[in-house]
Amino acid sequence: MSTTPTAEYGRAADAGPATGPAGWGGGRFGRILRSPLGWSVTGLVGVALVASLTATGPGPVPVLGAAAAVAVYALVMRRIAGRATPEIARSGAAREAVLGGGIGLGFILAALLLITLFGGYSFSWAGGGYLSVVWSAVMVQIGTAVTEELMFRGLFLQALEQRWGSGIAIAVTAVFFGAAHLGGAGANLWSALAIALQAGVMLGAAYVWRRSIWFVAGLHFAWNTVQQLAGVPVSGHAPEGLFTVDAHGSAALTGGIFGLEASVVPVLLSVLITVPMLVLARRGGGLLPRRRARH
Questions:
Q1: 180-210, pLDDT tens digit by residue?
Q2: 131: how many CB neighbours lie within 10 A of its CB?
Q3: Where along the chain do its domains lie?
Q4: What is the pTM of this model?
Q5: Of 14, 17, 40, 130, which one's alpha carbon is 20 to 30 angstroms from that of 141?
Q6: How are beta strands 243-247 and 121-125 bridged, if at all?
Q7: Are the CB atoms for 139 and 64 separated by under 8 Å?
Q8: Taking a C-beta distance cutoff of 8 angstroms, is the pair 104, 228 a contact?
Q9: Cα angle vertex 97, ends 39, 160, to 5°?
Q10: Which residues contact 168 (CB under 8 A, 6 or more apart)?
């Protein structure tokens, strides 16, 4: 009988570091470093540094950066946090990524179809060079999905969970995830709130359900890649896609120059995905209540 990702996580989280990871010493600095604040900040800095150096690199550089970010994450979690990392286990990784990708694909295609049916979008073929466009999109979006999920769900969410439980962790990481996307063209308070609700909350729910970085990275990857290839701005960044898109009518429907993620359509659709994920997470023991969080 196979072990579910949630069950594996539960054993890893309950075990905790018995005496602290070797090699980091004792004293006040060691205690701070081994605390959720210490290991999460250390990991966030490390993964963010790798991402900043590789995210926009040529060819497979973003994917190589993602692999390096996974290595940094594993090092921080095992050597500083002193815990196992079933969430990045190689066994079942492909299955989790495909499952998450399928959900992300269905979600974005449904949003694009509904907006188009309501007259918000019209598409035209962008022209030749489609192989290079697809290759570039896939490489960049793999790097983006993996590094962002390691930071927001792997490190930030899990650190908050240990202090305050899953509910608060999902809410706080969702707010920061929305705020992190304020740099794109057309970004405003609504776009940040929309991303917090549809992406931050949904990806947080996806993580506590499956307890797999590969699952949420697959969902995130499909989400961004389909938007980019469709020619729709991704968080305010105009993509080089297979199509060009013309937006018509209200920005509430189309998302305006910020793109699909500022439309009310995916916000509403995300509820239909997020609620079942949270129900399944609760049934599977993936939601950690505050009373069980470590202090």
A1: 999 889 999 999 999 999 999 999 999 999 9
A2: 8
A3: 88-292
A4: 0.89
A5: 40
A6: antiparallel
A7: no
A8: no
A9: 25
A10: 160, 290
